Amino acid sequence: MEIIQLKHNTPLWKQTIDFAENSSWIPGKHIAGMLRENRFTDWEAFFAATENQKIIAHCSFLKEDYYPENKYSPWISSIFVTETARGKKVSHKLIQTAITYAQSKGFTKVYIPSDLKNFYEKCGFTPIDTLKNYAGDYDTIYMRQI
């Protein structure tokens, strides 16, 4: 498995759009749109995990996330691992890659939003808040010092 920071308009960028568009994850179509429109600015980034030259997972590194009240930054978000690749710590490797990238940009904390319980704690994150997202649901906000 390899984790790669995507570069706009490369074959892997286009492959990731297709992967997200056709994933079983409901927000996949939104992620595909973000990539299609290249909605990333400044230091924001997108990472993909590949195996045998196929996308198996992705995550983003963003200034803002899916919350009207964006009081935290930067976000590690859009974490999705295809069903056949789960249980292999792919998401942990994606998160660590995003953390290394965050450190290279001078950040000392990172945040992950999620409704999963007892998952991100295994990656060193602590729940610090609950925020209402644009859909009206509440997510736990996890933070990690880096």
TrEMBL record:
Signal peptide: none annotated. Pfam families: Acetyltransf_1. Residues 1-146 form the N-acetyltransferase domain. Gene3D superfamilies: 3.40.630.30. InterPro entries: Acyl_CoA_acyltransferase, GNAT_dom, GNPNAT1-like. It comes from the Bacteria. GO terms for molecular function: glucosamine 6-phosphate N-acetyltransferase activity. This is N-acetyltransferase domain-containing protein.
